[in-house]
């Protein structure tokens, strides 16, 4: 028999550890992991490279600052260069899911280079009533923004497909609404993703810092204290225990938040924890300017070390990028940190950062990397057949060169954004081939796949 693809001589990271075997692919699936070299239509020499499961980025914002028909192309392009094979979009909709969801899915189905799916953000009672509809359409995870409410309830929603017009909204995600979302998600047996910052505390903190005429990333961090994270973590964990709902905390980057989560876990709350590369590499003590403004803020050098410690102790489950596809003209829309836009691009640099700062500095090992970037997200969010290099799984494979050095620039990734917070960083360890369902979609910083190859991934939670 002649198979579709043979990858020879790479170091293959499996659930049992690293093995020196060949990977055989047939019909987009891993058919064999073997010492043999059967006849294949295409052969890849993996000598000197490491093969890991393709990255699953569970936290990506795109379609907000450019319409989804364009954003799906540009952001999946950047993702493919960075070794990502599945991206999960944080979908924010103004109005009804029943009226608009299918329009967005149709507008993006011919545009992705890699596989994709969605989390549905819930902002009001009418959207709570549509969570069942989302679940019926294989969208089985829901995002809660506890940071949005009152006079800090401003948010940009997804652009209408084909229209380059920002859609601003004012929302009010009260604790009463949060409890209703958790209760309904639990009844649907779906996890909730939580941005844990108390919006009332943030509002007061920001007013205080502005009145003092403070500026810069330090002022931004002071205005949104980790105490405000801890307060929201405690509140939603109480709801989680009450209704037996899985809570997934997004972008955790402070020691206080990590400690609070450990405390809530001991009480029996079902919790998953995500961090982001910027909480492993950036602090307001070292960064200048406003490019690294994000919610929650980057913290201190000590917090950075605390996040690394948590990774090493397997207290963090996943790494998402919180990638925001925006541009400098919007990002730096004011004269100070208060006028700058929160969020920045990062989907292309996530794996190189983790290889350079994590693997090559012996902070984490390759099996930890695989669990953090692929396996755990696939399990948590019901991406069956993804997240592992095993027989029968999708042949989503990222091949990495741990010795390769390259300087970061926005041009490297071909995304919508014209800047990166890591611009100019020299990183050691890069993906050199990104394979989605047995097809090479990116190779040596060049996308060779076609828009539309990426599939919408139906999900099912066990």
Automatic annotation (TrEMBL):
Q: Which domain of life is it from?
A: Archaea
- According to its UniProt record, the EC number is 3.5.2.3
Q: Does the keyword Hydrolase apply?
A: yes
User: Entry's InterPro entries?
Assistant: Amidohydro-rel, DHOase/Allantoinase_Hydrolase, Metal-dep_hydrolase_composite, Metal_Hydrolase
What keywords sit in the KW lines?
Answer: Hydrolase
Gene Ontology biological process terms, A to Z: purine nucleobase catabolic process
Q: Does the keyword Hydrolase apply?
A: yes
Domain Amidohydrolase-related: start-end pairs? 171-441
* Cellular-component GO terms for this entry: cytoplasm
Q: What class of enzyme is it?
A: hydrolase
A single GO molecular function, which one? allantoinase activity
What name goes with this protein? Dihydroorotase
The source organism is Candidatus Nitrosopelagicus brevis
């Amino acid at each position: 028999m002649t198979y579709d693809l043979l990858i020879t001589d790479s170091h293959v990271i499996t659930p049992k550890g690293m093995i020196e075997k060949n990977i055989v692919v047939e019909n987009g699936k891993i058919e064999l992991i073997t010492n043999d070299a059967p006849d294949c239509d295409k052969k890849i020499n993996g000598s000197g490279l490491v093969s890991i499961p393709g990255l699953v980025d569970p936290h990506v914002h795109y379609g907000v600052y450019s319409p989804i028909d364009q954003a799906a192309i540009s952001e999946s392009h950047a993702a493919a260069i960075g070794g990502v094979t599945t991206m999960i979009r944080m979908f924010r909709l103004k109005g009804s899911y029943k009226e608009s969801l299918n329009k967005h899915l149709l507008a993006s189905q011919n545009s992705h280079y890699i596989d994709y799916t969605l989390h549905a953000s819930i902002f009001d009672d009418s959207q709570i009533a549509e969570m069942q509809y989302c679940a019926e359409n294989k969208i089985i995870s829901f995002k809660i923004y506890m940071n949005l409410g009152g006079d800090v309830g401003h948010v940009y929603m997804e652009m209408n497909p084909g229209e380059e017009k920002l859609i601003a909204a004012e929302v009010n995600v009260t604790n009463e609404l949060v409890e209703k979302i958790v209760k309904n998600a639990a009844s649907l047996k779906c996890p909730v993703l939580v941005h844990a910052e108390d919006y009332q505390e943030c509002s007061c903190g920001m007013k205080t810092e502005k009145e003092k005429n403070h500026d810069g990333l330090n002022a931004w961090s002071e205005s949104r204290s980790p105490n405000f994270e801890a307060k929201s973590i405690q509140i939603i964990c109480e709801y989680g225990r009450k209704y037996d709902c899985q809570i997934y905390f997004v972008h955790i980057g402070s020691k206080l938040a990590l400690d609070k989560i450990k405390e809530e876990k001991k009480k029996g709350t079902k919790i998953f924890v995500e961090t982001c590369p910027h909480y492993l590499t950036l602090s307001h003590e070292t960064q200048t300017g406003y490019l690294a403004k994000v919610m929650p803020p980057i913290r201190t050098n000590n917090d950075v070390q605390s996040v690394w410690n948590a990774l090493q102790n397997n207290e963090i489950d996943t790494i998402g990028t919180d990638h925001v596809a925006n541009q400098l003209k919007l990002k730096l829309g004011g004269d100070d940190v208060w006028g700058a836009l929160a969020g920045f691009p990062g989907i292309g640099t996530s794996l190189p950062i983790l290889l350079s700062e994590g693997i090559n500095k012996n902070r984490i090992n390759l099996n930890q990397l695989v669990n953090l970037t692929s396996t755990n997200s696939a399990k948590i969010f019901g991406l069956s057949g993804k997240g592992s290099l095993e027989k029968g799984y999708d042949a989503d494979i990222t091949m990495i060169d741990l010795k390769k050095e390259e300087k970061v620039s926005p041009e490297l990734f071909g995304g919508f954004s014209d800047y990166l917070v890591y611009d100019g960083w020299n990183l050691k360890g890069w993906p050199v081939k990104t394979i989605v369902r047995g097809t090479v979609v990116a190779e040596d910083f060049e996308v060779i796949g076609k828009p539309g190859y990426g599939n919408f991934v139906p999900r099912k939670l066990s």
